[in-house]
């Protein structure tokens, strides 16, 4: 894993990909920092970081698009998968390399609260906590982008798909308002979600029997639960899918200086899930 990590870090800085990614985040954050904190005298850098979420969503696909798509397109993936290393080593080596590149602008951001403190009062604790949460959110984004890069040969498709998924997460709280509220509508919605999960399992494992079996069992269980107590299905989709709202916890810290530890757990879980899906994607091709 160390060899893969070192090679990937070097590759990001031997090309313009790493410097461009770092430049985008630092330049845009610097502009917001200058206008909001230095010119207008707002003492909280956490608010500046809070305004950078959309830019993070734009920048991360640039970083992750080549992680596996390039190897697959150049057929270097075949050599990599036949090497005497585990798939976990390959995936984690690439993942931590991207995290290391992302950590560079985050470390630079840590200087901004100190700059604010030289001119007056600064809230170092909440500002650094916001930077830490921003870093964890970026790690989750990187895992998602890496997985999407592992299922295509095109870097462009990987970047566009990553941006699309991250955009949906960005708008998740607003989209939740359009989820059905009736019990029957939520039952249908939950069955659709189960079908999508079964399709995802089939795409990764290529085992139709397990995929169909899981879909049938969960669908029957949902229908039985609906017949027993239909009222429990009212607003169920909003409650269930609300766990994927990745922004509320961050916004509360950025704007109100309130740290929600569930946001930390959510970001770490999302990062692990993205890494796990990437491993499964490569495992399928390794033994194909």
TrEMBL record:
Pfam families: ABC2_membrane_2. It is a multi-pass membrane protein. InterPro entries: ABC-2_transporter_component. Keywords: Cell membrane, Membrane, Transmembrane, Transmembrane helix. The chain crosses the membrane at residues 12-35, 41-63, 95-116, 128-149, 156-175, 187-204, 209-228, 264-282. Its main location: membrane. The keyword Transmembrane applies. The keyword Transmembrane applies. One of its GO terms (molecular function) is ABC-type transporter activity. GO terms for cellular component: plasma membrane. It is found in: Cell membrane. PANTHER family: MEMBRANE COMPONENT OF ABC TRANSPORTER YHHJ-RELATED, MULTIDRUG ABC TRANSPORTER PERMEASE YBHS-RELATED. This is ABC-2 type transporter domain-containing protein.
